[in-house]
Design brief:
By secondary structure, this protein is an alpha+beta fold. The chain has a seven-stranded antiparallel β-sheet. A six-stranded antiparallel beta barrel has the order 8-9-10-13-12-11. Strands 15, 16, 17, 18 and 19 form a five-stranded antiparallel β-sheet that branches. It is globular and about 95 Å long. It is built from six helices and 20 strands.
Length: 419
């Protein structure tokens, strides 16, 4: 039935009755669609055009064969039309069209994307030394956005202060504003940016501890500067120990990551990874790659990693409150040359800090920590990542080996540091 005018089979006087149509996905006993709360949500990359595909060349015999085939098909169509007394191009021919309406489930990818995209932003940095683009999303309706530290790092000067005019935030409706970095934490690869806007729609935050391997997820962001890009996949694994490099030098990030096969590419960093309800369960942060492809950056091979939102939320709240965030520590220096299994406390002087949680628990230089709360650790990076999923003040149980003795366990309360 058309929305304009009266159908030809109905007179103006005939009362029109709108039938009650049940959506194809629902049943009489189906529950109402869920409602969603609006409580608060590696290196930047330049856009480069993809390389053009080479022209496919066709040999002369093949070209002749194609011409003959085209002639045969054309002759057959013409003959058929002549025999039937009509033509495909007859001006008296009547063509029909259908104005169909696709009914989509409230939890379809299309429906979820329509809800989430308005709260996802593109973040651009531009300085005399370079710049790039990344993504972010609305964390609070009063203008606070969450993203990765490496997305905004170029906008921070050598003195630690933000360079004037170096950071721009663009919303899906085209609005572009200057952004101010409220706080950032390189070790968690998280940053909070503030824009001078209110009344924004914040994305609801899910519970990353509840997500299961195989659950469907959607990644939204600005890969290669293409804002509003939506990709889908599943959670491939949990508790992946991901670091930005193999060493423990200052500035590296340690992430107890969610792994996904949803396509994540340069520029997706900082964007949300949402579950099947549209709630954020991770912050897209890194990808594994086999080598460089575009402009020295690599593309997706189905191995993407996101910071669990439970960790990101705690860090973001601290950054908003004070501009700094705290990290849980046990108070030891680790021997990064130790190949494992486990993480060995260094044998250097002061490897176990005085009055630290480790010292109070009786750990000594040379002890090899092989598990935390029953979770086995293969190396130093895995131990650091496993510790950092906790908060200062949490109680953990470490399993360690002090040769030649067998494994032993010790409980300790994690300390805190803002360094």
């Amino acid at each position: 039935m058309s929305d304009e005018g009266v159908p030809p089979f109905q007179t103006p006087e005939t009362p029109q009755v709108t039938p009650q149509v049940t959506p194809w996905w629902s049943t009489p006993t189906a529950p109402a669609p869920p409602t969603f709360a609006t409580n608060f949500r590696p290196d930047p990359f330049y856009f480069q055009a993809a390389p053009t595909k080479p022209t496919r060349r066709i040999g002369i015999p093949a070209a002749l064969a194609m011409a003959v085939l085209a002639g045969s098909v054309g002759g057959a169509v013409g003959y058929s039309a002549a025999q039937s007394g009509g033509s495909l191009f007859d001006i008296h021919a009547k063509l029909s069209s259908v104005n169909s309406v696709i009914e989509r489930r409230p939890d379809s990818v299309a429906a979820l994307a329509a809800r989430v995209i308005p709260s996802v932003v593109s973040i651009t940095t531009s300085t005399p030394n370079g710049g790039g683009t990344g993504s972010g999303f609305v964390l609070r309706s009063d203008g606070y956005l969450l993203t990765n530290n490496h997305v905004v790092a170029d906008a921070i000067g050598a003195d630690g202060n933000q360079i004037s005019g170096a950071l721009q935030v663009q919303f899906s409706d085209g609005r572009t504003l200057s952004g101010q970095v409220v706080g950032r934490d390189p070790s968690y690869d998280l940053a909070v940016v503030k824009v001078n806007l209110s009344g924004l729609t914040a994305l609801p935050l899910g519970n990353s501890d509840k997500i299961q391997v195989g659950d469907s997820v959607i990644a939204i962001g600005s890969p290669l500067g293409l804002s509003g890009t939506v990709t889908t996949g599943i959670i491939s694994a949990k508790n992946r120990a991901v670091t930005t490099s193999g060493s423990l030098s200052p500035g590296n990030s340690f992430i107890n990551a969610l792994q996904t096969d949803a396509a994540i590419n340069p520029g997706n960093s900082g964007g949300p990874l949402v579950d099947a309800t549209g709630a954020v369960i991770g912050v897209n942060s890194a990808i594994a790659s086999l080598g460089s492809s575009i402009g020295g950056q690599s593309g997706s091979i189905g191995l993407g990693f996101a910071i669990p939102i439970n960790q990101a939320k705690r860090t973001a709240e601290e950054l908003i409150r004070s501009g700094k965030s705290s990290h849980p520590i046990i108070g030891v220096s680790l021997d990064t040359a130790f190949a494992g299994p486990g993480a060995r406390i260094a044998t250097t002087k002061n490897a176990v800090s005085t009055d630290s949680p480790a010292a109070k628990a009786g750990l000594l230089p040379g002890d090899i920590i092989v598990a935390i709360d029953g979770r086995r650790v293969a190396n130093s990076d895995e131990l650091i990542v496993a510790i950092r999923i906790h908060a200062p003040g949490d109680r953990v149980v470490l399993t360690y080996v002090r040769k030649p003795a067998a494994e032993a366990k010790v409980a300790l309360i994690l300390g805190g540091s803002t360094k």
